[in-house]
Every structure is written in C-alpha cells, then in structure tokens.
Specification:
It is a single chain. This protein is an all-alpha fold. It has one domain. The protein is built from eight helices and no strands. 13% of the residues are buried.
Length: 150
C-alpha cells in the first residue's frame, strides 16, 4: 500500500509546483494558451489513469480500489484547478517568446500529432523500463546483495 501511495503521490507532484515567482500576466497567459493548444487537460487525465493502472499492475491486491483512486483524482486533482500551476511550470522553464514559438508548433498538424501521442509514448517508455528491469531482475538482486556484503 505504501508503494502505491508513493507512486500516486509522485503523480500528484503536479500539485506541488514551486511557489509562484514573479512572472508577468502575459507570460502566464501565453503558457495557458500553450496548454490549451496541446490539449493538456485531456492528456493530464489520461496520464493520471495510466499511472494508476501502472501502480495497480505492480500491486494487484489493490485492484479493487481502482475506482476509488479515480474518484479521488476526479475530486481532488482536477485539471481546472491545476492548469494554472502547470502554466507556472512552463513559464518558469521557457521565456514568453519561447512559449509562443512552441505554441505555433503545436498549432501545426505535426504538433497536434505530438500532443496526442506523447502520453502514450511516455506510458510505453515506462513499461519498457519496467520490462528491462524484470528481464534483468536476478542480476539486480545479485548486485544489491553484493552491495550489502561490502
């Protein structure tokens, strides 16, 4: 249960954005526009659900709580309430001019394809990482035992 809560907490890191720095209103509005063009609200929900499913696959005994986790996120981690924090994160990492250029890209057909595929690709990448660890789990255990023996 602790591992699941930790995993879900990591997913909830979106709600832990650093304290808002002095960023102009136009800068933050540009970031909000980017998030809208990227259809980030939909991707956010998809990523949360995929993250929950990944955690539940790792902890099958908790599968019966899937809907409870979904309900929790629906109630306490709503896109409308966190999108401002996401915009802050983008504004802290990109200048307003950069955000406007990124937005231009996401308005293109290729940009929209990137927006639609990113969540799935990230999920596939996480699954690949898990698969690689599982394929080499015995070596990892051996290395951990070796480290403990030192």
């Amino acid at each position: 249960m602790k591992k699941l809560v930790l995993g879900l907490t990591l997913l909830g890191l979106v709600g832990m954005a650093s304290a808002e720095e002095a960023i102009s209103e136009s800068h933050k509005n540009a970031a909000l526009e980017l998030l809208e063009v990227m259809e980030m609200g939909e991707q956010f929900s998809d990523a949360l659900e995929a993250g929950i499913d990944t955690q539940l696959q790792a902890n099958p005994g908790l599968m019966r709580y899937r809907q409870t986790f979904l309900d929790f996120y629906d109630q306490y981690v709503k896109w409308e309430e966190v999108k401002g924090r996401f915009a802050q994160i983008y504004a802290e990492n990109f200048t307003e001019a950069e955000i406007k250029k990124i937005t231009e890209f996401y308005r293109t057909d290729v940009g929209q394809k990137v927006a639609l595929k990113t969540t799935k690709m990230m999920e596939d990448g996480m699954k690949l990482g898990e698969q690689l660890v599982m394929e080499n789990q015995s070596e990892l255990i051996r290395m951990m035992q070796e480290a403990d023996a030192k």
